[in-house]
Amino acid sequence: MSSNEQERLLCYNGEVLVFQLSNGNFADKEPTKTPVLHVRRMVFDRGTNVFVQKSTGLFTMKEENSHLKIMCCDYVSDFRTGINLPHIVIQNSKKNNVFEYFLLILHSTNKFEMCLSFNLGYEIKDSLRVLNGPLILWRHVKTFLFISSQTSKVISVLGNLSSIQWAGEIENLGMVLLGLKECYLSEEECTQEPSKSDYAIWNTKFCVYSLESQEVISDTYIIPPAYSSVVTCIHICATEIINNQLRISLIALTRKNQLISFQNGTPKSVCQLPFGDPCAVQLMDSGGGNLFFIVSFRSNNACAVWKENFQVAAKWEKVSLVLIDDFIGSGTEQVLLLFKDDLNSDYLTSFKITDLRNINYSSEPSDCNEDDIFEDEQDNRYLVVPPLEAGLKVGFSSLRELRQHLLLKEKIISKSYKALINLVQGKDDNTSSAKEECLVPLCGEEENSVHILDEKLSESFQDSEQLVEKIWYRVIDDSLVVGVKTTSSLQLSLNDATLSLLMDQAHGSGFRLLKCQNRVIKLSTRPFPAPYLMPCEIGLEAKRVKLTPDSKKEESFVCEHPSKKECVQIITAITSLSPLLAFSKFCCTVLLQIMETESANCLKNHYVVCGRVVLSLEDLSAGKYLLTFPKKKPIEHMEDLFALLAAFHKSCFQITSPGYALNSMKVWLLEHMKCEVIKEFPEVYFCKRPGSFYGTLFTWKQTTPFEGILI
pTM value? Predict the structure, then answer.
């Protein structure tokens, strides 16, 4: 395809429509100044295994020397007949920054009809959709607008929508939009776009907006607020109205490369996708109750997911386009995968058609003659099948032995861990003598070594009531933050304390250690003017401040030698929430490991079982543990403050002023940044300035009359 040609493909009633916008027609050797829109109807020939041309059509543009661009093509319902017809939207760049847009409908006679045209003083760059009517919806700056062939005028969407994940028609409701609605903290305009984490903090939630009534008709039973910052694409499967309340069944793609099924606002199934950055999802019905979700990725990959069990059924790479239709006329749907071919610009030269069952066609040539294969099929079957059966039997036998071995190992580890936990909690170990027989020494050790181990374990574990005052947990964006408040008698740093989360496995098969990021946070309760909060290197001789951003080794918040009663100490563990969403309910044991140095080359470990964390999808859907900012009230729970300190990105600035003007820093924080001092911890400033700064935490430590540290 030459540089002055544009091409788009669309499937419609089993055909592949190839739209081509070029200067002049195909027969001309030299292009003319008048642009022409061509369409070719291509059908798949099962005999020759290629796409052949069925018919053609063209539309001559009136504008000469125009800069035309194909925006999109699809098929929608025409309000005059109710029939779905293909359409194409074209942009014409005029002079003086004026852009003309027109929508052409293609009829069965290959005749184009100009259905809608309008001019704008700006260019539509993204988020353009065509809905039934036809109706064109797009976004400009922060406003969504639409125009239809019935109204012929541009109308603004009044709902405060920050993004639209789905748009379409719902029975008895008409044309609706499903997207995120922002609930700002102030009426003042915010000039900056909110960050991803702000969505979870600002109570953004999904809502359904009606274009006809210009109002939000539902904001419940859609998607829980915890997912608002990660969902990128939505496909609605079914809707119904119960007691005047809209109930929706849908699937969603997330930034965590997941496909999640939601029913009435509750997550039901999760599938981890094989590729990154998913961008679109379609439903394919291959017949016999076999439904697949076909997911496309921006990395030119695609995959198919079973709707029944939410498992990946197939995946493909180097895919340029994915189309779903009945291309072979079987009465069921197939997926057409068009692959990239650097040697040929024609999209339909390298392809694959499959229903993921018994229909498979490919443009790749076969190495053998199919007739010869069919004639020798009976003879080859008797030669090949018996060795395959024998090999399968050997393989199954090996798998059974391996499975029994793994089950035995899991049983030993599970019983050992339960005995360990019972020992820590002071409970009687009810392990029967029959079960204890499998817990034999693995390295030829003597039997009395078990008693020696029990004595050492008793010394290593300490009572949680003596060291732990409280355990809590919060959900921030896509992170689960678990915190443990220790007693004032326990003084820790990040080098000698580790907080671990041990997740219970299903059917009591053992425990799984979750990957966590630890932080030790110490805040002083002293009144002003003693700000002690500052990040410093861990160690006895820490003398300089680390001014680098977050790295793999976590920072620690420490106090400058306050008395034990004047300092609150929290140990936190942060883990990703996405892998846990696959479970309807999950439980974790919180284990604190403390390392003490007995001598120069000897370390002694102490373990404390702090408690258990129990979370369910119902709790998360209801936003029970979701951390949000109050609009006018200060932070009510100090656990929220510690969770923010643990999860927030921290930046540290060393500020110098030769003119001894650093005393105005507190005035700048209180007056210009509209900060509020946390009553319980006067060293922490909570920013209440409207806009993207809202919720920022500041601490200021003046080290000398002309130097200080701002965090």
Answer: 0.55
